[in-house]
Amino acid sequence: MPPMRALDIARDRNLDLVEVSPHAMPPVCKLMDYGRYKYEQAKKENEARKNQKTVTLKEIRMRPRTDDHDVEVKTRKIQEFLADGDKVKVSVQFRGPDMRHPDIGRKLLDGIAEELKGIATIERSPAMEGRLMSMIVSRAPGWEPQKKTVSVGKNKSAQVAEEATDTADEPQTANATVAQTQEPVAQTQEPAAQTQEPQQQ
């Protein structure tokens, strides 16, 4: 179709003539509302940016002779970072005489990697960076962290039992109030009996 004919059709339909394949022979054009097309593209890009999670590189540091309990605590912290979708840089910091025993740091990092098997993927194997030996781990594909569950049934039954005990106590407090209000009535009748004695004499 001649270009002028295509332009006339676009004007008649109140559309735009957009060239989509300029290198084709002959070039390929398309009739469209170009303004609406740009709006839809921008909207899709904004939604994609909103749904895209920013991956942060966290770092956990320890010493070559860190005790087992602290290593367990730091390993659990690494799991928390991985559950949030972050990458983790695990580093062993060497000082003074420790620099002569890099094998201790390597053994420590290998032990952590073994603990994280199935949870983390080793993106970078342990390597020396100055006084640090570091490795980088990320969340393993297909691993889903366990969600914490709250037992609602027990809380509800406890609440119902508490309400039942409260309602059971209500009649007792009501009876006690009635008994207290009746006592003054009995006391007010005594003076009336005393005033009648002089009239009989």
Automatic annotation (TrEMBL):
Translation initiation factor 3 N-terminal domain residues: 1-48
Lineage: superkingdom: Bacteria
Entry's Gene Ontology cellular component terms: cytosol; membrane
UniProt keyword Protein biosynthesis, yes or no: yes
InterPro entries membership: T_IF-3_C_sf, T_IF-3_N_sf, Translation_initiation_fac3_CS, Translation_initiation_fac_3, Translation_initiation_fac_3_C, Translation_initiation_fac_3_N
Family matches, as PROSITE patterns: IF3 (PS00938)
Record family assignment: Belongs to the IF-3 family.
Name listed for the protein in its UniProt record: Translation initiation factor IF-3
